[in-house]
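From the shared-data thread, chain only:
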Amino acid sequence: MKKVLVLGAGMVSRPLVRYLLDQQDFSVTMASRTLSKIDKIIDGHPDGKALPLNVKDDTILEKLISKADLTVSLLPYIYHVKVAKFCIKHKKHLVTTSYVSDEMQQLDDQAKEVGVIILNESGLDPGIDHMSAMRVIHDIEKNGGKIVSFRSTTGALPSHEANTNPFGYKFSWSPRGVLLASLNPSKWLQDGEIISYPGEQLFENYTIQDVLGVGSFENYPNRNSIPYKEIYGLEDAKTVYRGTFRMTGWCETMRKIVTLGWLNEQPRKDFSGNTYGDLTRHLIGVGPEENLLKKTAEFLGLKTYSTVIKRLEWLGLFGNEPLPEDKDNPLDYLNVLTLNKMSLGIDEIDMIIMHHEFIVEYPHKREYITSTLLDYGIPKGDSAIARTVAFPAAIAAKMILNRKINIIGVHIPVTPKIYNPILDELEKMGIMFDEKRKELN
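Structure, as tokens:
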């Protein structure tokens, strides 16, 4: 019996665990802070085991890792390196869905010395984005093409019928990570020039993009795209861009929320109010006798009837909703409010859009190639985001334990031996890309 340890019981864990339990000769131990969540996922399966875990208890964590053949860490990324070090110490494999940090990459030699693989970025984005892009890139190279432009954008959104709030966004998990991502600096290569902006200007650099058969979306840059020129082997590319899709109106609204200071993680020691409206007053420095909506519009350089002000009013940033007593800073207050107002309902479904664009030069022609994934959640079942993050990691774990992946060291899934079988199995699940080609003048 192959033993898998799954750390964490968050939004993507259920489809991953159920997939592994459906394999022959696999047992799964799931460890997390909330035992009730694990019990629902295991659901009495004879090869599943639920254990409580405080991830800060290194003794218990190391013991669990030492008893498994492979660990899948679905914990917050800050814990992955600690988990990886225990895996290396006990010669165990590791799979994560998070970006490779510099500290994680530094474990490459140690992992090779003990003969284990630390496979990261094996979810959706990062994950399927790498695998699907590299499949097209390698195919182009085999046919003698040179990629001169590469753009890749992903969006995790409510389906169109579930798009029923003025923000055009719904959360099926804690919004904190999404809100924090609103402060990420951005950098990309555009026509041979490096474009770079600080985090507070992230949402000033969006475009409107049509995705055939899906709709029109805002597209803003996703972190630093420059390393992907080398990672993907795009030697001839003058444009390398990775972005994020949102429904129209998101970028301007989030830019103004950043301006107001609602994404600040520091407690406001000089604040003594009790409501969301009180904190907005404090952030823009107006007294209780003044019209908050009007003063906020003036502070932001907007008209009172602007759609941004209407969205902030709808969310409750001018209202009398009491601030949660167990929080102490604007970001965490906003996290609670957005989760209450913008959660994906149990009867609603989400959608994943991943859209790659390539401009390719062949000896006698130029081509524009698109490769698009559109996937929907299952009504009253797993969300699209959960499925597309969980299944690549689960398939990778199965392949490692079945010795179909036999490389060692710290890796991401950009080689054919890793990405081909994972993409092939995803296609059998209905998670597949539609590729279109058009010859350019």
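The CA atoms of residues 268 and 342 lie 25 Å apart.
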